[in-house]
Design a protein that fits this description.
The chain is of the alpha/beta class. The protein is built from 18 helices and 14 strands. The protein is globular and about 65 Å long. The structure holds S-adenosylmethionine (SAM).
Length: 501
Protein backbone atom coordinates (compact mmCIF):
# COMPACT_ATOMS: atom_id res chain seq x y z
CA UNK A 1 0.00 0.00 0.00
CA UNK A 2 1.34 3.45 -0.90
CA UNK A 3 -0.61 5.59 1.54
CA UNK A 4 -3.56 5.55 3.94
CA UNK A 5 -6.32 7.67 2.39
CA UNK A 6 -8.39 8.16 5.57
CA UNK A 7 -5.40 9.69 7.40
CA UNK A 8 -4.46 11.75 4.33
CA UNK A 9 -7.99 13.19 4.27
CA UNK A 10 -8.33 13.67 8.03
CA UNK A 11 -4.85 13.74 9.59
CA UNK A 12 -4.54 12.74 13.21
CA UNK A 13 -3.94 15.56 15.72
CA UNK A 14 -0.27 14.83 16.20
CA UNK A 15 0.47 15.74 19.82
CA UNK A 16 3.26 15.16 22.32
CA UNK A 17 2.30 12.13 24.40
CA UNK A 18 3.79 12.45 27.91
CA UNK A 19 3.38 8.72 28.61
CA UNK A 20 5.73 7.85 25.75
CA UNK A 21 8.72 9.90 26.95
CA UNK A 22 11.61 7.47 27.27
CA UNK A 23 12.79 8.96 30.59
CA UNK A 24 9.31 8.31 31.98
CA UNK A 25 9.26 4.79 30.49
CA UNK A 26 12.66 4.08 32.02
CA UNK A 27 11.33 5.21 35.41
CA UNK A 28 8.24 3.01 35.16
CA UNK A 29 10.49 0.11 34.17
CA UNK A 30 12.60 0.67 37.30
CA UNK A 31 9.47 0.48 39.44
CA UNK A 32 9.04 -2.98 37.91
CA UNK A 33 12.63 -3.92 38.73
CA UNK A 34 13.76 -3.56 35.12
CA UNK A 35 16.83 -1.58 34.11
CA UNK A 36 16.12 0.31 30.86
CA UNK A 37 18.67 1.99 28.55
CA UNK A 38 19.75 5.62 29.02
CA UNK A 39 17.00 7.71 27.33
CA UNK A 40 19.31 10.60 26.49
CA UNK A 41 21.47 8.52 24.18
CA UNK A 42 18.79 6.12 23.04
CA UNK A 43 17.78 4.97 19.59
CA UNK A 44 14.01 5.58 19.42
CA UNK A 45 11.61 4.21 16.80
CA UNK A 46 8.02 5.45 16.52
CA UNK A 47 5.60 3.40 14.43
CA UNK A 48 2.59 5.26 12.99
CA UNK A 49 4.12 8.56 14.10
CA UNK A 50 1.74 10.79 12.05
CA UNK A 51 3.52 14.10 11.28
CA UNK A 52 5.93 13.69 14.20
CA UNK A 53 4.20 15.80 16.86
CA UNK A 54 5.41 13.32 19.48
CA UNK A 55 8.76 12.23 18.06
CA UNK A 56 10.23 15.57 16.98
CA UNK A 57 10.06 17.24 20.44
CA UNK A 58 11.74 14.12 21.91
CA UNK A 59 14.56 14.37 19.36
CA UNK A 60 14.87 18.09 20.07
CA UNK A 61 15.13 17.51 23.80
CA UNK A 62 17.77 14.78 23.51
CA UNK A 63 20.17 15.80 20.74
CA UNK A 64 22.29 12.71 21.42
CA UNK A 65 19.38 10.37 20.75
CA UNK A 66 18.62 9.00 17.30
CA UNK A 67 14.96 8.98 16.35
CA UNK A 68 13.22 7.28 13.44
CA UNK A 69 9.52 7.63 12.65
CA UNK A 70 7.54 5.44 10.26
CA UNK A 71 4.22 6.61 8.86
CA UNK A 72 2.07 5.14 6.11
CA UNK A 73 -0.02 8.24 5.38
CA UNK A 74 2.02 10.17 2.82
CA UNK A 75 0.41 13.52 3.67
CA UNK A 76 1.31 13.19 7.35
CA UNK A 77 4.83 11.86 6.77
CA UNK A 78 5.56 14.69 4.33
CA UNK A 79 4.43 17.32 6.81
CA UNK A 80 7.07 16.24 9.29
CA UNK A 81 10.15 16.46 7.08
CA UNK A 82 10.22 20.23 6.36
CA UNK A 83 9.51 20.89 10.04
CA UNK A 84 12.58 18.83 10.99
CA UNK A 85 14.66 20.64 8.39
CA UNK A 86 13.62 24.06 9.68
CA UNK A 87 14.71 22.97 13.16
CA UNK A 88 18.05 21.86 11.76
CA UNK A 89 17.80 18.50 13.52
CA UNK A 90 19.98 15.71 12.20
CA UNK A 91 19.00 13.09 14.80
CA UNK A 92 15.45 12.48 13.58
CA UNK A 93 13.81 11.51 10.35
CA UNK A 94 10.35 10.37 9.33
CA UNK A 95 10.13 7.60 6.80
CA UNK A 96 7.04 7.31 4.64
CA UNK A 97 6.19 3.61 4.51
CA UNK A 98 4.45 0.58 5.93
CA UNK A 99 5.56 -0.66 9.35
CA UNK A 100 4.89 -4.15 8.00
CA UNK A 101 7.53 -3.62 5.35
CA UNK A 102 10.46 -2.02 7.17
CA UNK A 103 13.93 -2.13 5.65
CA UNK A 104 15.99 -4.87 7.32
CA UNK A 105 18.95 -2.57 8.06
CA UNK A 106 17.20 -0.29 10.59
CA UNK A 107 19.20 -1.80 13.46
CA UNK A 108 18.03 -2.12 17.04
CA UNK A 109 16.20 0.43 19.17
CA UNK A 110 16.18 1.07 22.91
CA UNK A 111 12.63 2.42 22.79
CA UNK A 112 9.90 1.54 20.29
CA UNK A 113 6.70 3.59 20.51
CA UNK A 114 3.41 2.63 18.85
CA UNK A 115 0.60 4.76 20.23
CA UNK A 116 -2.88 4.36 18.77
CA UNK A 117 -1.78 1.88 16.13
CA UNK A 118 -2.22 -1.76 17.26
CA UNK A 119 -6.03 -1.85 17.54
CA UNK A 120 -6.52 0.31 14.46
CA UNK A 121 -4.79 -1.83 11.84
CA UNK A 122 -5.69 -5.21 10.28
CA UNK A 123 -4.53 -8.42 11.98
CA UNK A 124 -1.49 -8.99 9.72
CA UNK A 125 -0.23 -5.47 10.56
CA UNK A 126 -0.79 -6.13 14.28
CA UNK A 127 1.36 -9.23 13.92
CA UNK A 128 3.95 -7.25 11.95
CA UNK A 129 4.04 -4.59 14.68
CA UNK A 130 4.93 -7.17 17.34
CA UNK A 131 7.37 -8.70 14.92
CA UNK A 132 9.12 -5.32 14.58
CA UNK A 133 9.39 -5.21 18.38
CA UNK A 134 10.89 -8.68 18.49
CA UNK A 135 13.39 -8.01 15.71
CA UNK A 136 14.35 -4.44 16.56
CA UNK A 137 14.32 -4.16 20.38
CA UNK A 138 17.77 -3.95 21.95
CA UNK A 139 18.51 -6.49 24.70
CA UNK A 140 17.17 -4.26 27.51
CA UNK A 141 14.94 -2.19 25.24
CA UNK A 142 11.33 -1.27 25.93
CA UNK A 143 8.42 -1.10 23.53
CA UNK A 144 5.32 0.94 24.29
CA UNK A 145 2.21 -0.39 22.54
CA UNK A 146 -1.21 1.04 23.35
CA UNK A 147 -4.42 -0.77 22.47
CA UNK A 148 -8.16 -0.74 23.07
CA UNK A 149 -9.33 -3.24 25.69
CA UNK A 150 -12.37 -5.50 25.26
CA UNK A 151 -13.60 -5.04 28.85
CA UNK A 152 -14.43 -1.33 28.42
CA UNK A 153 -15.09 -1.34 24.69
CA UNK A 154 -17.85 -3.96 24.98
CA UNK A 155 -19.99 -1.15 26.42
CA UNK A 156 -19.17 1.24 23.56
CA UNK A 157 -19.61 -1.09 20.60
CA UNK A 158 -23.33 -0.18 20.06
CA UNK A 159 -22.21 3.40 19.47
CA UNK A 160 -19.55 2.41 16.93
CA UNK A 161 -22.04 0.14 15.14
CA UNK A 162 -24.74 2.84 15.01
CA UNK A 163 -22.32 5.47 13.71
CA UNK A 164 -21.00 3.15 11.00
CA UNK A 165 -24.49 2.06 9.94
CA UNK A 166 -25.99 5.54 9.87
CA UNK A 167 -23.19 7.28 7.95
CA UNK A 168 -22.11 6.77 4.33
CA UNK A 169 -18.86 4.81 4.06
CA UNK A 170 -18.14 6.19 0.59
CA UNK A 171 -17.98 9.85 1.71
CA UNK A 172 -14.57 11.53 2.16
CA UNK A 173 -13.54 11.40 5.84
CA UNK A 174 -14.33 15.09 6.68
CA UNK A 175 -17.85 14.85 5.18
CA UNK A 176 -18.52 11.56 6.96
CA UNK A 177 -17.41 13.16 10.21
CA UNK A 178 -20.04 15.91 9.71
CA UNK A 179 -22.67 13.24 9.14
CA UNK A 180 -21.55 11.46 12.32
CA UNK A 181 -22.07 14.66 14.32
CA UNK A 182 -25.70 14.76 13.18
CA UNK A 183 -26.13 11.07 14.07
CA UNK A 184 -24.75 11.76 17.56
CA UNK A 185 -27.54 14.30 18.10
CA UNK A 186 -30.13 11.73 17.00
CA UNK A 187 -28.66 9.07 19.29
CA UNK A 188 -28.59 11.48 22.21
CA UNK A 189 -32.35 11.92 21.84
CA UNK A 190 -32.92 8.15 21.50
CA UNK A 191 -30.57 6.50 23.98
CA UNK A 192 -30.77 6.35 27.77
CA UNK A 193 -27.70 4.24 28.68
CA UNK A 194 -25.53 6.51 30.88
CA UNK A 195 -22.17 5.18 29.60
CA UNK A 196 -23.15 5.72 25.98
CA UNK A 197 -24.67 9.14 26.68
CA UNK A 198 -21.48 10.25 28.42
CA UNK A 199 -19.43 9.09 25.44
CA UNK A 200 -21.77 10.90 23.01
CA UNK A 201 -21.33 14.14 24.98
CA UNK A 202 -17.54 13.69 24.89
CA UNK A 203 -17.47 12.89 21.16
CA UNK A 204 -19.46 15.98 20.21
CA UNK A 205 -16.51 18.17 21.19
CA UNK A 206 -13.66 15.69 20.68
CA UNK A 207 -11.14 16.18 17.87
CA UNK A 208 -12.72 15.23 14.50
CA UNK A 209 -9.80 12.89 13.79
CA UNK A 210 -10.43 11.08 17.09
CA UNK A 211 -14.12 10.52 16.41
CA UNK A 212 -13.45 9.40 12.85
CA UNK A 213 -10.57 7.04 13.49
CA UNK A 214 -12.05 5.55 16.66
CA UNK A 215 -15.67 5.17 15.60
CA UNK A 216 -15.86 5.20 11.80
CA UNK A 217 -12.56 3.75 10.63
CA UNK A 218 -12.49 0.24 9.16
CA UNK A 219 -10.45 -1.13 12.05
CA UNK A 220 -10.93 -0.74 15.76
CA UNK A 221 -10.39 -4.17 17.23
CA UNK A 222 -10.24 -4.22 21.03
CA UNK A 223 -8.42 -7.13 22.61
CA UNK A 224 -8.40 -8.50 26.18
CA UNK A 225 -5.26 -8.12 28.23
CA UNK A 226 -4.93 -11.91 28.47
CA UNK A 227 -5.10 -12.32 24.70
CA UNK A 228 -2.60 -9.50 24.21
CA UNK A 229 -0.18 -11.15 26.66
CA UNK A 230 -0.51 -14.40 24.66
CA UNK A 231 0.27 -12.50 21.46
CA UNK A 232 3.40 -11.16 23.12
CA UNK A 233 4.46 -14.63 24.13
CA UNK A 234 4.03 -15.98 20.63
CA UNK A 235 6.34 -13.18 19.40
CA UNK A 236 9.06 -13.90 21.99
CA UNK A 237 8.14 -10.79 23.94
CA UNK A 238 6.90 -10.27 27.47
CA UNK A 239 4.74 -7.82 29.38
CA UNK A 240 6.68 -5.43 31.56
CA UNK A 241 4.12 -3.04 33.00
CA UNK A 242 1.72 -0.25 32.30
CA UNK A 243 2.54 3.33 31.27
CA UNK A 244 -0.98 4.76 31.56
CA UNK A 245 -2.55 6.36 34.63
CA UNK A 246 -4.04 3.79 36.98
CA UNK A 247 -6.50 3.93 39.84
CA UNK A 248 -5.75 0.42 41.01
CA UNK A 249 -2.46 -1.43 40.95
CA UNK A 250 -1.91 -5.16 41.29
CA UNK A 251 -0.15 -6.23 44.47
CA UNK A 252 0.68 -9.92 44.77
CA UNK A 253 0.40 -11.35 48.24
CA UNK A 254 1.54 -14.86 49.13
CA UNK A 255 3.97 -14.80 46.21
CA UNK A 256 6.70 -16.49 48.28
CA UNK A 257 8.39 -19.39 46.64
CA UNK A 258 7.13 -18.49 43.17
CA UNK A 259 9.66 -18.33 40.34
CA UNK A 260 9.76 -14.95 38.55
CA UNK A 261 7.85 -16.60 35.66
CA UNK A 262 5.26 -18.02 38.07
CA UNK A 263 4.80 -14.60 39.61
CA UNK A 264 4.47 -12.99 36.15
CA UNK A 265 1.69 -15.47 35.32
CA UNK A 266 -0.23 -14.63 38.49
CA UNK A 267 0.30 -10.95 37.88
CA UNK A 268 -1.11 -11.15 34.35
CA UNK A 269 -4.22 -12.98 35.60
CA UNK A 270 -4.71 -10.22 38.16
CA UNK A 271 -4.32 -7.54 35.47
CA UNK A 272 -7.10 -9.22 33.42
CA UNK A 273 -9.37 -9.29 36.47
CA UNK A 274 -8.65 -5.60 37.06
CA UNK A 275 -9.76 -4.76 33.51
CA UNK A 276 -13.07 -6.53 34.02
CA UNK A 277 -13.67 -4.96 37.44
CA UNK A 278 -12.97 -1.43 36.19
CA UNK A 279 -14.29 -1.78 32.59
CA UNK A 280 -10.88 -0.64 31.33
CA UNK A 281 -10.96 0.65 27.73
CA UNK A 282 -7.38 1.45 26.92
CA UNK A 283 -3.96 0.20 27.90
CA UNK A 284 -0.46 1.44 27.33
CA UNK A 285 1.60 -1.73 27.65
CA UNK A 286 5.35 -1.79 28.14
CA UNK A 287 7.02 -4.75 26.54
CA UNK A 288 10.46 -6.33 26.66
CA UNK A 289 12.14 -9.17 24.83
CA UNK A 290 11.34 -12.60 26.28
CA UNK A 291 15.04 -13.16 26.96
CA UNK A 292 15.28 -9.93 29.01
CA UNK A 293 15.01 -10.23 32.80
CA UNK A 294 11.50 -10.99 34.04
CA UNK A 295 9.68 -7.95 35.41
CA UNK A 296 7.46 -7.91 38.48
CA UNK A 297 4.48 -5.82 39.65
CA UNK A 298 5.53 -2.28 40.58
CA UNK A 299 7.29 -1.89 43.94
CA UNK A 300 6.94 1.27 46.06
CA UNK A 301 10.48 0.72 47.43
CA UNK A 302 11.92 1.44 43.96
CA UNK A 303 10.64 5.04 44.17
CA UNK A 304 13.82 5.96 46.05
CA UNK A 305 15.77 5.43 42.78
CA UNK A 306 13.75 8.02 40.83
CA UNK A 307 13.17 11.74 40.45
CA UNK A 308 9.74 13.39 40.23
CA UNK A 309 7.97 16.39 38.75
CA UNK A 310 4.38 17.60 38.98
CA UNK A 311 2.28 20.47 37.69
CA UNK A 312 -0.74 20.19 39.95
CA UNK A 313 -3.17 22.99 40.72
CA UNK A 314 -5.79 23.40 43.42
CA UNK A 315 -8.17 26.27 44.15
CA UNK A 316 -8.61 25.10 47.75
CA UNK A 317 -6.71 26.21 50.79
CA UNK A 318 -4.46 23.24 51.46
CA UNK A 319 -5.05 21.56 54.81
CA UNK A 320 -1.69 20.35 56.05
CA UNK A 321 -3.00 19.45 59.50
CA UNK A 322 -5.48 16.71 58.64
CA UNK A 323 -5.67 13.70 56.36
CA UNK A 324 -8.68 15.21 54.58
CA UNK A 325 -9.04 14.39 50.90
CA UNK A 326 -8.38 17.37 48.61
CA UNK A 327 -8.27 17.43 44.82
CA UNK A 328 -5.49 18.66 42.57
CA UNK A 329 -5.83 18.94 38.78
CA UNK A 330 -3.06 17.64 36.53
CA UNK A 331 -2.25 19.05 33.03
CA UNK A 332 -4.48 16.37 31.44
CA UNK A 333 -7.40 17.90 33.40
CA UNK A 334 -7.84 14.92 35.74
CA UNK A 335 -8.71 15.53 39.39
CA UNK A 336 -6.23 13.70 41.61
CA UNK A 337 -7.22 13.11 45.25
CA UNK A 338 -4.55 13.59 47.92
CA UNK A 339 -5.23 12.98 51.60
CA UNK A 340 -1.93 12.65 53.51
CA UNK A 341 -0.66 16.05 54.74
CA UNK A 342 2.94 15.10 53.89
CA UNK A 343 1.92 14.34 50.30
CA UNK A 344 0.02 17.63 50.00
CA UNK A 345 3.20 19.33 51.16
CA UNK A 346 5.20 17.31 48.60
CA UNK A 347 2.79 18.36 45.83
CA UNK A 348 3.24 21.99 46.85
CA UNK A 349 7.02 21.59 46.72
CA UNK A 350 6.88 19.91 43.31
CA UNK A 351 4.57 22.57 41.90
CA UNK A 352 6.99 25.27 43.05
CA UNK A 353 9.93 23.44 41.46
CA UNK A 354 8.13 22.64 38.16
CA UNK A 355 9.35 22.06 35.46
CA UNK A 356 12.36 20.87 37.47
CA UNK A 357 12.29 17.44 39.04
CA UNK A 358 13.28 16.55 42.61
CA UNK A 359 15.06 13.38 43.69
CA UNK A 360 13.30 11.19 46.24
CA UNK A 361 15.40 12.40 49.23
CA UNK A 362 15.08 16.04 48.09
CA UNK A 363 11.33 15.65 47.76
CA UNK A 364 11.03 14.21 51.26
CA UNK A 365 13.15 17.05 52.65
CA UNK A 366 11.16 19.66 50.70
CA UNK A 367 7.86 18.22 52.00
CA UNK A 368 9.17 18.41 55.56
CA UNK A 369 10.24 22.02 54.97
CA UNK A 370 6.82 23.01 53.62
CA UNK A 371 5.17 21.47 56.70
CA UNK A 372 7.60 23.37 58.95
CA UNK A 373 6.98 26.66 57.10
CA UNK A 374 3.25 26.24 57.69
CA UNK A 375 3.88 25.52 61.35
CA UNK A 376 2.83 21.86 61.17
CA UNK A 377 4.98 19.88 63.55
CA UNK A 378 3.61 16.34 62.97
CA UNK A 379 6.50 13.93 62.43
CA UNK A 380 6.70 12.61 58.87
CA UNK A 381 6.38 8.84 58.58
CA UNK A 382 8.42 7.80 55.55
CA UNK A 383 6.41 4.65 54.85
CA UNK A 384 3.25 6.74 54.71
CA UNK A 385 5.03 9.22 52.43
CA UNK A 386 6.28 6.49 50.09
CA UNK A 387 2.91 4.75 49.83
CA UNK A 388 1.09 8.01 49.14
CA UNK A 389 3.69 8.93 46.50
CA UNK A 390 3.29 5.49 44.94
CA UNK A 391 -0.46 6.10 44.50
CA UNK A 392 0.11 9.56 43.02
CA UNK A 393 2.68 8.20 40.58
CA UNK A 394 0.26 5.45 39.51
CA UNK A 395 -2.46 8.05 38.88
CA UNK A 396 -0.02 10.34 37.00
CA UNK A 397 -0.51 13.15 39.48
CA UNK A 398 3.24 13.01 39.97
CA UNK A 399 5.39 11.90 37.04
CA UNK A 400 8.52 9.86 37.72
CA UNK A 401 11.63 10.16 35.58
CA UNK A 402 15.29 9.30 35.87
CA UNK A 403 16.96 12.49 34.68
CA UNK A 404 18.25 15.20 36.97
CA UNK A 405 19.44 18.70 36.16
CA UNK A 406 17.56 21.94 35.89
CA UNK A 407 14.91 22.24 33.21
CA UNK A 408 13.63 25.70 34.11
CA UNK A 409 14.16 28.66 31.79
CA UNK A 410 14.24 32.27 32.91
CA UNK A 411 12.66 35.53 31.78
CA UNK A 412 15.93 37.48 31.77
CA UNK A 413 16.16 41.00 30.39
CA UNK A 414 15.65 39.85 26.79
CA UNK A 415 13.29 36.84 26.96
CA UNK A 416 14.18 34.25 24.38
CA UNK A 417 12.03 31.22 23.54
CA UNK A 418 13.39 27.86 22.44
CA UNK A 419 13.63 27.47 18.65
CA UNK A 420 11.23 24.51 18.78
CA UNK A 421 8.53 26.52 20.58
CA UNK A 422 8.91 29.47 18.18
CA UNK A 423 8.63 27.19 15.15
CA UNK A 424 5.62 25.35 16.59
CA UNK A 425 3.97 28.72 17.34
CA UNK A 426 4.25 29.90 13.75
CA UNK A 427 3.34 26.58 12.09
CA UNK A 428 -0.38 25.93 11.54
CA UNK A 429 -1.31 22.34 12.44
CA UNK A 430 1.39 22.06 15.13
CA UNK A 431 0.77 22.49 18.84
CA UNK A 432 3.31 24.11 21.14
CA UNK A 433 4.77 21.52 23.49
CA UNK A 434 6.06 22.18 26.99
CA UNK A 435 9.43 20.94 28.10
CA UNK A 436 7.70 18.11 29.97
CA UNK A 437 6.16 16.98 26.70
CA UNK A 438 2.68 18.37 27.34
CA UNK A 439 0.38 20.12 24.88
CA UNK A 440 0.05 23.80 25.77
CA UNK A 441 -3.34 25.33 25.12
CA UNK A 442 -2.26 28.68 23.66
CA UNK A 443 -4.56 31.21 22.00
CA UNK A 444 -3.55 33.17 18.90
CA UNK A 445 -2.05 36.15 20.82
CA UNK A 446 0.04 33.81 22.99
CA UNK A 447 1.38 32.08 19.87
CA UNK A 448 2.22 35.51 18.41
CA UNK A 449 4.05 36.50 21.57
CA UNK A 450 6.14 33.31 21.44
CA UNK A 451 7.19 34.19 17.90
CA UNK A 452 8.44 37.60 19.08
CA UNK A 453 10.71 36.03 21.72
CA UNK A 454 13.94 35.95 19.72
CA UNK A 455 16.05 37.45 22.50
CA UNK A 456 16.26 40.89 20.86
CA UNK A 457 13.45 42.63 22.74
CA UNK A 458 13.09 43.67 26.34
CA UNK A 459 9.85 43.01 28.20
CA UNK A 460 9.07 46.74 27.87
CA UNK A 461 9.47 46.54 24.09
CA UNK A 462 7.27 43.47 23.82
CA UNK A 463 4.17 45.12 25.32
CA UNK A 464 3.62 47.78 22.58
CA UNK A 465 4.34 45.14 19.94
CA UNK A 466 1.66 42.92 21.44
CA UNK A 467 -0.72 45.88 21.69
CA UNK A 468 -0.30 46.54 17.95
CA UNK A 469 -0.68 42.83 17.17
CA UNK A 470 -3.90 42.63 19.15
CA UNK A 471 -5.21 45.74 17.36
CA UNK A 472 -4.56 43.98 14.03
CA UNK A 473 -6.69 41.12 15.37
CA UNK A 474 -9.43 43.64 16.17
CA UNK A 475 -8.80 43.74 19.93
CA UNK A 476 -8.15 47.25 21.37
CA UNK A 477 -6.58 47.20 24.85
CA UNK A 478 -4.67 49.71 26.99
CA UNK A 479 -0.90 49.42 27.09
CA UNK A 480 -1.05 48.90 30.84
CA UNK A 481 -3.41 45.95 30.45
CA UNK A 482 -1.41 44.40 27.60
CA UNK A 483 1.80 44.87 29.55
CA UNK A 484 0.37 43.01 32.53
CA UNK A 485 -0.95 40.16 30.34
CA UNK A 486 2.37 39.92 28.47
CA UNK A 487 4.23 39.59 31.72
CA UNK A 488 1.87 36.89 32.98
CA UNK A 489 2.18 34.99 29.73
CA UNK A 490 5.98 35.17 29.86
CA UNK A 491 5.94 33.62 33.32
CA UNK A 492 3.69 30.85 32.02
CA UNK A 493 6.16 30.20 29.20
CA UNK A 494 9.00 30.08 31.71
CA UNK A 495 7.06 27.64 33.87
CA UNK A 496 6.61 25.31 30.91
CA UNK A 497 10.33 25.45 30.15
CA UNK A 498 9.86 27.29 26.83
CA UNK A 499 12.43 29.99 27.57
CA UNK A 500 16.15 29.64 27.06
CA UNK A 501 18.08 29.59 30.33
C1 LIG B 1 -4.67 6.67 15.39
S1 LIG B 1 -3.29 7.29 14.52
C2 LIG B 1 -2.16 7.60 15.82
C3 LIG B 1 -1.09 8.59 15.44
C4 LIG B 1 -0.05 8.85 16.52
N1 LIG B 1 0.70 7.67 16.85
C5 LIG B 1 -0.71 9.41 17.75
O1 LIG B 1 -1.01 8.69 18.67
O2 LIG B 1 -0.99 10.61 17.76
C6 LIG B 1 -2.62 5.86 13.73
C7 LIG B 1 -1.46 6.18 12.83
O3 LIG B 1 -0.87 4.96 12.33
C8 LIG B 1 -0.61 5.12 10.94
N2 LIG B 1 -0.57 3.78 10.33
C9 LIG B 1 -1.61 2.93 10.15
N3 LIG B 1 -1.19 1.81 9.55
C10 LIG B 1 0.14 1.95 9.38
C11 LIG B 1 1.14 1.11 8.81
N4 LIG B 1 0.84 -0.09 8.32
N5 LIG B 1 2.42 1.56 8.78
C12 LIG B 1 2.74 2.79 9.28
N6 LIG B 1 1.82 3.62 9.82
C13 LIG B 1 0.54 3.20 9.86
C14 LIG B 1 -1.77 5.98 10.46
O4 LIG B 1 -1.53 6.60 9.23
C15 LIG B 1 -1.88 6.98 11.60
O5 LIG B 1 -1.04 8.08 11.44
Amino acid sequence: MDTLASYDELPYDSLPLPETQPDFLAAVARLHGFDAPDPMRARILELGCAQGGNLIPLAWRWPQSECVGVELSRVQAERGTPFIQQLGLSNVHIQHGDLADLPGDLGTFDYIIAHGVYSWVPLPVQQALLDVCRRHLSSQGIAYVSFNVTAGWALLQPLRIALIERTAANLPAPARYQQALRVLNELEAEWTDPVLRKEITFLKTAAPSYLFHEYLADFNTPISFGEFAKQLESHDLRYLGEAGPRHAVVELEDAWGLTPEGMAGRWQDAESALDEAHAIRFRRALIARADAPCAQPPQAEALSLLTFYADLQSDDEIDLENASEQHFTNPAGNAIPVAQPVMKAAVMALSTAYPDALTYPDLLTAARQVMAEYGVSNPVDETLFRNALFQLVAAHGVMPCISTGSAAGSLGEYPCAQTLARLQARSPGWVVSGLRHTTLDLDAPARKLLRFLDGNRTIDELAPLMQATLAEMGVEQSLEHVSERTNQQLWLFARQGLLVK
